[in-house]
Amino acid sequence: MIPFLGPLDPFPPVELAREDMGGLLAVGANLAPDRILDAYRRGIFPWGTVEGQPLWYSPDPRMVLFPEEFRLTRSLRKTLRGQNYEVRFDHDFPATIAACSKTPRPGQDGTWISPEMMNAYIRLHELGWAHSVETYVEGDLVGGLYGLAIGRMFYGESMFSRCSNASKIAFAHLVRRLDEQQFGMIDCQMRTEHLASLGGREIERNKFLSHLRALTATGEARTDWRASNTEFAW
């Protein structure tokens, strides 16, 4: 049976997650900033709600990307060297998460980014924990992603693209920034072929948690990402 959490109940051990249910660990509690941050530090993340109740997951294995393993293909490098786009950090987080919520996903009926989830992550953005990377063409938002940064760990949540390579452009700039800031790992949560094509791979949960403990030891929020709105040499 999947445990139901009250507002003050602690998370159960991640080893109790139901792998036959995609790593579902618990239901309930709330989406308060402290609860979400506590979850991420433990290798747990919220993925949608049922009747307003958050669903908490900790899958094994875990999809991750180490910045030094990012796969920059020849075609993507050519795209990045183009002059027809602009990348901004934390310029319009609400618009980015809203666009992610409206993007159809293969094999999914609807979106897990409910209004409750959007409000929770917008609050985390206001507090300096959640960040967005956005791709613009002629001033229009055409792609991007969002996630959380804790210490030297980045937790990717979702991305969207309205034109070819727009999300890959944002992701490449994210990886370059994280590498410069000595971040050690990006949590990609679940395997997708898109992430695998960029260098992501699955690792055992216990190894993921070992990396996680080391990278989140400082625990601070990286509050001002707008200063990263600079051009990288590709």
Automatic annotation (TrEMBL):
It is found in: Cytoplasm. Functions in the N-end rule pathway of protein degradation where it conjugates Leu, Phe and, less efficiently, Met from aminoacyl-tRNAs to the N-termini of proteins containing an N-terminal arginine or lysine. Keywords: Acyltransferase, Cytoplasm, Transferase. GO terms for molecular function: leucyl-tRNA--protein transferase activity. GO terms for biological process: protein catabolic process. It catalyses: L-phenylalanyl-tRNA(Phe) + an N-terminal L-alpha-aminoacyl-[protein] = an N-terminal L-phenylalanyl-L-alpha-aminoacyl-[protein] + tRNA(Phe); N-terminal L-arginyl-[protein] + L-leucyl-tRNA(Leu) = N-terminal L-leucyl-L-arginyl-[protein] + tRNA(Leu) + H(+); N-terminal L-lysyl-[protein] + L-leucyl-tRNA(Leu) = N-terminal L-leucyl-L-lysyl-[protein] + tRNA(Leu) + H(+). Belongs to the L/F-transferase family. It comes from Candidatus Dechloromonas phosphorivorans. GO terms for cellular component: cytoplasm. The keyword Flavoprotein does not apply. SUPFAM superfamilies: Acyl-CoA N-acyltransferases (Nat) (SSF55729). Its EC number is 2.3.2.6. The gene is aat. This is Leucyl/phenylalanyl-tRNA--protein transferase. InterPro entries: Acyl_CoA_acyltransferase, Leu/Phe-tRNA_Trfase, Leu/Phe-tRNA_Trfase_C, Leu/Phe-tRNA_Trfase_N. Signal peptide: none annotated.
